[in-house]
UniProtKB/TrEMBL annotation:
Alphabetized NCBIfam families for the sequence: L_rham_iso_rhiz (TIGR02629)
Protein name: L-rhamnose isomerase/sugar isomerase
SUPFAM superfamilies: Xylose isomerase-like
InterPro entries reported for this sequence: L-rhamnose_isomerase, L_rhamnose_iso, Xyl_isomerase-like_sf, Xyl_isomerase-like_TIM-brl
Pfam entry (one): AP_endonuc_2
GO molecular function, one term: L-rhamnose isomerase activity
Boundaries of every Xylose isomerase-like TIM barrel domain copy: 100-291
Keywords assigned by UniProt, alphabetized: Isomerase, Manganese, Metal-binding
Organism this protein belongs to: Rhodoferax saidenbachensis
Residues passing through the membrane, by range: none
EC number: 5.3.1.-, 5.3.1.14
Length: 429
């Protein structure tokens, strides 16, 4: 396997931290034991947690006005995979990459899969792109794709999704994520019912092409680029579509795709109940689809989402097998550092959710002891599980402090010398 960061450097980094980490881990174990929690059992559970990294996330993102490229940015998908391999090498909870097409198209997918394996990662869900026009594309998606009034545009969008399925088969993926920007920017622009019916008709063609062991992830978004009305604007529309299409269709929840103050954890509970939860695109937001690092604005909400997920897993909820992926792309940080930080934050919230005393919580809920029910959640959320996460990473060959080890390695500077700098550009990408 290719090692992007020198393993000796990681070992030295961990050796310097080992005494402190082991002491903190032991202290945490004593604290948890008093609450009836075996830290060894907890460690084994958390060590199994995994979240996928988006291929597009390792490049510097942008705003609607400008993009400011960073040093050593990936030039193509092979560079992206290498950067994703660095993330996995240091955090040890991001074993897969979610590619996006046609951004990540290559001539030889066997070679790409081998390159990923050499970098210690595999492939997660494949993502289609019918929300922007590509070079030499015959028909435009300016006024929609899967829901376009023109049957030829819809056929083109369907064909692209079918191509993504074929690519995914070669990469070892088991799911297709479908997000469209279709909708309207002016009242009267679109016929709401006919537009939704066209969405269902197009997706039926894609759904029918799915292999038997694949799933179809339908992603909703409140707004953008259709600001007046979006076809799949909330979880209700997504659920209606998934129920119409069939058992392989599920609803994907992107934490940034909701209005401020939306109770996302309740949406999660409803989709679990409906047996239609596909999984997550983790990020954070202040105003809308900000694509900020996970937990950077509202870590308690992220914890509450995992509280619902852990409860569903522990109670044996039917058809519960969510896929986890990061989805962020900002413009003021090193993307690798941000993705590592987000991966650790998501893993942290999972560990904290496992610490919820569910027997006590149920008793407080059933007796309407509101304060103690809330305090039970807060006790788990306020538990500092940092030593646990550090121990898990170190035992797996990762870094006690991934960002510190990454910076010490000089990886970004090395890539800057290899990968030519790209000039500034307008727009998100």
């Amino acid at each position: 396997m290719t090692q992007q960061i020198n393993t000796g450097l990681i070992a030295d980094h961990n050796a310097q931290a080992a005494a402190r980490v082991n002491l903190d881990y032991e202290t945490l174990g004593e604290q948890l034991a008093r609450r009836g929690v075996d830290i060894a059992v907890l460690k084994a559970d958390v060590a199994k947690f995994a979240v996928a990294v988006p291929s597009w996330g390792v490049g510097t993102g942008g705003t609607r006005f400008a993009r400011f490229p960073g040093l050593g940015e990936p030039r193509h998908v092979f560079d992206k995979i290498q950067d994703c391999g660095v993330i996995q090498q240091l955090v040890r909870c991001t074993p897969t990459v979610s590619p996006h097409f046609p951004w990540d198209k290559v001539s030889d997918y066997k070679e790409l899969r081998q390159h990923a394996e050499a970098n210690g990662v595999g492939f997660d869900a494949v993502n289609s792109n019918t929300f922007s026009d590509q070079k030499d594309q015959p028909l435009s998606y300016k006024f929609g794709s899967l829901t376009h009034a023109d049957a030829g545009v819809r056929a083109q969008a369907v064909a692209h999704n079918l191509e993504c399925i074929e690519i995914g088969k070669q990469l070892g993926s088991k799911a297709l994520t479908v997000w469209i920007g279709d909708g309207a920017n002016f009242p009267g622009q679109s016929h709401f019912r006919r537009q939704f019916e066209r969405y269902l008709d197009s997706n039926r063609q894609i759904y029918d092409a799915l292999p038997a062991d694949w799933r179809m992830f339908l992603e909703h978004k409140m707004f953008e680029p259709a600001f007046y009305a979006t076809v799949i604007q909330d979880w209700g529309s997504s659920l209606l579509a998934a129920q119409t299409l069939g058992p392989k269709a599920r609803c994907l929840v992107d934490l940034g795709h909701h209005a401020p103050n939306t109770n996302i954890e309740m949406i999660v509970a409803r989709l679990v109940h409906a047996q239609k939860l596909a999984g997550f695109h983790f990020n954070d937001s202040k105003y809308g689809d900000d694509d900020l690092d996970s937990g950077s604005i509202n870590p308690f909400q992220l914890f509450l989402v995992f509280n619902e997920l852990v409860d569903a897993a522990q109670t044996g909820a039917a058809e519960f097998d969510p896929a986890y992926m990061l989805d962020q792309s900002h413009n003021v940080t090193d993307p690798i550092e941000s993705l590592m930080t987000s991966a650790v934050t998501v893993q942290r919230c999972y560990a904290q959710a496992l610490l919820v005393d569910r027997k006590a919580l149920t008793a407080y809920q059933d007796s309407n002891d509101v304060l103690m029910a809330a305090q039970t959640l807060k006790q788990a959320f306020h538990t500092d599980v940092t030593p646990l996460l550090q121990k898990i990473r170190m035992d797996a060959g990762g870094a006690a402090d991934p960002v510190a080890a990454y910076r010490a390695s000089g990886y970004r500077k090395q890539m800057a010398a290899i990968r030519p700098a790209s000039g500034p550009s307008s727009g998100i990408v």
